[in-house]
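Researcher: Please translate sequence to structure tokens.
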Amino acid sequence: MTLQQEKRYSSMTEHELRQEISLLQEKARKAEQMGMVSEFAVLERKVQMAKAYLGNPSSYKSGEIYELEGDPGQYFKIDYINGVFAWGYRLKGDGKEEALPISMLKGLK
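Model: Translation complete:
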């Protein structure tokens, strides 16, 4: 029996990432229908991570404020970008620094 090594999102092609996102979204939909709340949350987080690798980190700027995807009225100020993560803090939060995948950030209009 051979164990298949899971491929890292960072080494996937855009096509592979899009396939992975579709698969994860389908699993999340099924978990939600079955009332598996924590499984649904884990799968949703994986979707955000995979989507982050489709984004362009250079389009996010230090010092800028972004709305959080799926959380209207919540804003995040970027201190710096490291890979596909934006480090900073939530404007109405406790002031603690945290890292979010860039896919969770939505530019303000």
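Researcher: Any highlights?
Model: Residues 9-52 form a domain with the Helix Hairpins fold (CATH 1.10.287.880).
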